[in-house]
């Protein structure tokens, strides 16, 4: 049996906990919450009361709860740590967890900059612990047959187009609660879309992903004064095989959109993450919901640790995506000046 420590109990903390409750080899051991939550965080955006760490532990059956991360990591009973806190804390918490000798699963993004991502991957290699990253789109089994055919040379992807549109002029998360931290359209939501593009055109072999890239272009505007962050982003990746990966996102949108289209020489594959539907030439069919798909991840990581194998999304495999984001950030820095953006420190 493997004892799991969950850091954070927002939406992903809930989804991972519910999945691990059904995982025979996992024990929900410790949940770590915020020591002093800001008053804004305890004010529900839709009239709902936010659960305390203690209440969360009782609800999901954790043996212990704490607001002291170092205390949790020092516990020799803890085998696996899942980091599901604010994006800007992922790298720092992952390094602490790895240095404590814990197998570590990090929510997307692994870090808010390339340097942080590389540091986490290097630390896990040095310590000899398993490092996985939560990239839910790779887990969609509905795409796996296509990816296998791409790898075998039986199908070629012409283009991948992904979109993420949401209205985020107010800093409210998926739980409906006001947050103390600010999201980032490049280092969070675009990470999903760039990664699924690189992963699929590479036939699932991310060790070849960077060698495939010919050019990266971006349209990334200046900071929005009301929010302190850039609010929209378009990224185009060109491969040496004349394939294109296009990602388009906006925090201004009034209609929520989250979808990915693959156009190949065999068919089109359109996945709508919000309606849980896949459309191909054969028509429309239901697929697992976002939550059902995400709930595959933590149990698979537990199994990987148990079996002594690499997890399905190992840490090293997300570095090609992080390097694309780094190139986009460098283009933005050159145009607007390198500066502190909420959630992302200047390195």
TrEMBL record:
<protein>
    <submittedName>
        <fullName>Gfo/Idh/MocA family oxidoreductase</fullName>
    </submittedName>
</protein>
<dbReference type="InterPro" id="IPR036291">
    <property type="entry name" value="NAD(P)-bd_dom_sf"/>
</dbReference>
<dbReference type="Pfam" id="PF01408">
    <property type="entry name" value="GFO_IDH_MocA"/>
</dbReference>
<dbReference type="InterPro" id="IPR045560">
    <property type="entry name" value="LigC_C"/>
</dbReference>
<dbReference type="InterPro" id="IPR051450">
    <property type="entry name" value="Gfo/Idh/MocA_Oxidoreductases"/>
</dbReference>
<feature type="domain" description="Gfo/Idh/MocA-like oxidoreductase N-terminal">
    <location>
        <begin position="2"/>
        <end position="134"/>
    </location>
</feature>
<dbReference type="InterPro" id="IPR000683">
    <property type="entry name" value="Gfo/Idh/MocA-like_OxRdtase_N"/>
</dbReference>
<dbReference type="Pfam" id="PF19858">
    <property type="entry name" value="OxRdtase_C"/>
</dbReference>
<feature type="domain" description="4-carboxy-2-hydroxymuconate-6-semialdehyde dehydrogenase-like C-terminal">
    <location>
        <begin position="147"/>
        <end position="248"/>
    </location>
</feature>
């Amino acid at each position: 049996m493997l004892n799991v420590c969950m850091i954070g109990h927002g939406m992903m903390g809930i989804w991972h906990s519910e999945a691990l409750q059904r995982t025979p080899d996992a024990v929900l051991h410790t949940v770590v919450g915020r020591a002093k939550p800001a008053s804004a965080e305890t004010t529900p955006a839709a009239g709902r009361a936010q659960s305390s760490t203690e209440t969360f532990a009782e609800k999901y059956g954790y043996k212990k709860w704490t607001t002291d991360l170092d205390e949790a990591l020092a516990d020799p009973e803890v085998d696996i740590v899942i980091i599901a806190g604010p994006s800007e804390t992922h790298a720092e918490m992952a390094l602490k967890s790895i240095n404590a000798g814990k197998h570590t699963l990090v929510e997307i993004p692994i870090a808010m900059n390339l340097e942080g991502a590389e540091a986490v991957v290097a630390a896990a290699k040095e310590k000899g612990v398993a490092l996985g990253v939560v990239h839910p789109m790779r887990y969609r089994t509905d795409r796996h047959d296509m990816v296998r055919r791409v790898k075998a040379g039986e199908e070629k992807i012409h283009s991948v187009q992904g979109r993420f549109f949401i209205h985020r002029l107010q800093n409210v998360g998926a739980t409906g609660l006001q947050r103390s931290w600010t999201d980032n359209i490049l280092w969070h939501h675009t990470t999903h879309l760039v990664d699924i593009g690189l992963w699929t055109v590479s036939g699932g072999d991310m060790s070849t992903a960077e060698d495939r890239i010919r050019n990266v272009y971006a349209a990334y505007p200046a900071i929005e004064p009301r929010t302190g962050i850039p609010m929209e982003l378009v990224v185009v990746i060109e491969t040496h095989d004349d394939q294109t990966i296009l990602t388009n996102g906006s925090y201004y949108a009034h209609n929520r959109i989250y979808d990915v289209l693959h156009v190949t020489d065999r068919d089109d594959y359109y996945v709508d993450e919000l309606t849980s539907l896949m459309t191909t030439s054969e028509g429309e069919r239901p697929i697992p919901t976002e939550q059902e798909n995400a709930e595959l991840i933590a149990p698979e990581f537990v199994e990987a640790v148990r079996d002594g194998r690499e997890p399905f999304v190992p840490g090293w495999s997300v570095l090609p995506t992080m390097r694309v984001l780094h190139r986009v950030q460098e283009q933005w820095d050159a145009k607007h000046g390198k500066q502190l953006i909420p959630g992302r420190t200047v390195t």
